[in-house]
Design goal:
The complex is a heterodimer.
Chain A (H helix, E strand, L loop, with lengths): L5 E12 L2 E6 L10 E6 L3 E5 L1 E3 L5 E5 L3 H7 L6 E8 L11 E6 L2 H11 L4 E6 L14 E4 L10 H9 L6 E5 L2 H13 L4 E4 L15 E2 L2 E2 L6 E3 H4 L8 E3 L5 E3 H6 L4
Chain B lengths: L3 E3 L2 E3 L3 E3 L8 H9 L4 E3 L16 E4 L2 E4 L12 H10 L4 E5 L4 H11 L6 E5 L15 H14 L4 E5 L6 H11 L4 E3 L3 E5 L1 E2 L4 E2 L5 E5 L4 H14 L4 E4 L5 H10 L3 E4 L2 H5 L3 H15 L14
Helix pairs in contact in B: 1-2, 3-4, 4-5, 5-6, 6-7, 7-9
Classes of the chains: A alpha+beta, B alpha/beta.
Bound molecules: flavin-adenine dinucleotide (FAD), flavin mononucleotide (FMN) and FE2/S2 (inorganic) cluster (FES).
FE2/S2 (inorganic) cluster binds next to loops of chain A.
Chain lengths: 261, 300
């Protein structure tokens, strides 16, 4: 049971937005939608990312967010990265249900492979501005933005609630900032629609031993990162706390603003 | 049948969660207890907040784990709330692991955390991931002085955790006992080791080297515990490479009074404690042995 990185060569790089790039890699890599890999940038760091494209033409899509993602953005075709995984529990695939996929910001990256596995699903995606919207050319989606530059000026949970007036959904998948996921959970409980969400915490091992990723009594890397509504409501730290790299418990806001030096 | 004792500390099962595995918050440690751990150890607590090394920090190779987490810690002053939660929800014994780079640092931390009344204070004098820490564990005089001073700071039982990376573990254990240690934990990770990725021609760990744990080190751990058992009377918490019931029994026979479980969590998740408990129980039944204590040190 090894879990050492497998080395892949970058084939092609695409600018998705001013701060997001997609790195296509040579080779074939599979995973269940919602699972993730620890991606190694030799000599720099190793961080959790999902595959935005899977199978014969796989890719990771990375938002510039700090020191190592900046280093990722400097990569060129021909450079090598390592992938360790796939890890964690992905989304439950409901093929024959009317499903909604609701994303906030880069949450759409984690939902992209799901959207591919569930053609015909209703996709709702919110971003700060039109420039920041990802994958709106790849998928048919209902967009909204903070400044109204694309779609209505609102957050994706609000757009979802408006759409509920005309459409019925049997299942909802969501990923985005945790406050947005919390808003989605509240809405789904209110309208009695079962749902699953993908969460983020600081990850070191990715294999369920270091517990830097704890949320309540769950390990995000092993028990998650995808959790159903029934578990989310029982997770004490959900929407509230996360451990920093040191293991110190911090309010979610502090965790999100934290940068590695 | 599975009841065990570590000195005067009663354990409902002989399995103890080892330090640095899962011990970051009260709720995940509670989950270990609910899944069959008899006691849990917190991730080693240090003097000030520290991030540890960058990733990759923990990797699984063919026969174990290699890690260079680098002693991340919230710092002992940043854990009051967690301690309250621990004492509120965990009823089984808690072991507080502590590290420092000087006698004074160990004492300061131990004085402070003693007010939360953990069952045992474990002295991590053996971590290979930070150069300063290990000096104590390799030197009988230094570790004796540390224990004598620490004993003055607390009434709680003191358990130094020894490194296998020395050539005189029984001498170190004797020095610990003489200085007043109440029990001994052995072993911490072995090595350090290194894994090189041949495609990129680079060491995989960001820190380059890391401590080895899991099945690869079991024979080393068994030998260390056997030698310590021969040289001291105080009880031993045997740690290193234990992943099933037969391993645990082997460790008890080497002389351990209780058995630490770390890397095995990687192979069998948190349910590993119940799994090992069942396997121990089955073996004891098949061999008509009534109690754990009847096999402690049986190999001697
Ligand atoms: C399961 C999972 C899947 C993810 N998938 C993607 C993806 O497909 N695309 C994408 O762009 N981003 C993804 N992320 C987020 C991504 O891992 C972080 O943006 C990245 O690690 C930031 O690293 P940095 O060095 O640039 O920033 P830093 O300066 O280190 O930190 C910036 C912020 O990123 C977060 N972060 C940093 N390191 C980690 C870590 N090791 N684990 C978790 N969060 C961290 C922290 O909240 C921090 O506030 C995912 C996160 C998780 C947990
Ligand atoms: C990821 C990881 C982190 C660890 N952190 C600590 C630590 O903080 N303090 C400590 O005393 N030992 C630490 N250890 C060592 C373990 O407690 C244990 O002694 C060692 O892993 C051998 O046991 P095992 O083979 O059952 O894992 C760590 C081990 C691992 C794998
Ligand atoms: S990242 Fe180590 S347990 Fe989840």
């Amino acid at each position: 049971m090894t879990s050492l990185p497998e080395i892949f060569t970058i084939k092609k790089i695409i600018d998705e937005t001013p701060s997001v790039k997609t790195f296509f890699i040579k080779g074939k890599i599979g995973m269940q939608p919602g699972q993730f890999f620890m991606v190694w940038l030799p000599g720099v760091d190793e961080k959790p990312f999902t595959l935005s494209y899977t199978g014969k033409n796989p890719a990771v899509t990375i938002r510039r967010n700090g020191k190592s993602t900046e280093a990722f953005h400097k990569l060129k075709p021909g450079d090598k990265i390592g992938l360790r995984g796939p890890f964690g529990k992905g989304f439950t695939i409901h093929k024959h249900k009317k499903v909604a996929i609701v994303a906030g910001g880069i949450g759409m990256i984690a939902l992209a492979s799901l959207a591919e596995a569930l053609p015909g699903s209703t996709i709702i995606c919110g971003a700060k501005t039109k420039d920041e919207m990802i994958f709106h050319k790849r998928f048919r989606m209902h967009c909204c933005s903070d400044d109204g530059s694309i779609g209505p000026k609102c957050f994706s949970p609000q757009l979802f609630e408006t759409m509920l007036k005309e459409k019925k959904f049997d299942f909802v998948y969501t990923c985005g900032p945790e406050i947005m996921i919390k808003a989605m959970l509240d809405l789904c409980l209110k309208y009695k629609i079962p749902m699953e969400a993908s969460l983020e915490r600081y990850m070191k091992c990715g294999i369920g031993v270091c517990a830097s990723c704890v949320c309540g009594n769950k390990l995000i890397c092993k028990d998650g990162p995808v959790f159903p509504d029934k578990e989310l409501i029982k997770m004490d730290d959900f929407g509230k706390n996360a451990l920093l790299m040191s293991g110190k418990k911090a309010a979610l806001k502090e965790f999100c603003e934290w940068k590695q030096e | 049948m599975l009841k065990a004792k570590l000195g005067r500390i009663q354990l409902k099962t002989p399995l103890v969660l080892a330090s640095g595995i899962l011990g970051t918050n009260a709720q995940i440690m509670k989950r270990c207890i609910d899944n069959g751990a008899g006691a849990v150890t917190l991730k080693s607590i240090g003097p000030i907040e520290r991030n540890g090394h960058n990733n990759p920090t923990v990797l699984a190779f063919d026969s174990g784990l290699i890690n260079a987490v680098g002693l991340p810690t919230p710092g002992y002053l940043n854990m009051d709330e967690e301690w309250e939660e621990i004492n509120r929800i965990i009823k089984e014994p808690i072991i507080a692991s502590v590290y420092g780079s000087s006698v004074e640092e160990y004492c300061r931390i131990i004085k402070y955390i003693s007010k939360f009344n953990p069952s045992i204070i474990e002295l991590n004098v053996s971590c290979p991931n930070k150069k300063a820490g290990m000096a104590f564990g390799k030197n009988a005089e230094l570790v004796s002085e540390l224990i004598r001073e620490v004993k003055k700071c607390t009434k709680l039982p003191i358990m130094p955790k020894l490194t296998p990376n020395c050539d005189n573990i029984s001498e170190i254990a004797k020095a610990c006992e003489k200085a007043g240690a109440d029990m001994i934990a052995a072993i911490n990770t072995a090595g350090p080791g290194m894994i090189i990725d041949i495609e990129t021609r680079k060491p995989l760990l960001k820190y380059k080297t890391g401590g080895i744990s899991g099945p690869a080190i079991k024979p080393i751990a068994i030998r260390c515990v056997y030698e310590i058992y021969e040289s001291v009377k105080i009880p031993i918490l045997g740690i290193g490479g234990i992943s099933n019931g037969r391993d645990a029994i082997e460790m008890l026979m080497a002389g351990a009074s209780a058995v630490g479980i770390g890397s095995a969590v990687y192979y069998d998740n948190i349910e590993v404690f119940n799994k090992i408990n069942r396997e121990i129980e089955e073996w004891l039944k098949n061999n008509k042995i009534k109690s754990i204590k009847d096999i402690i040190g049986a190999a001697r």
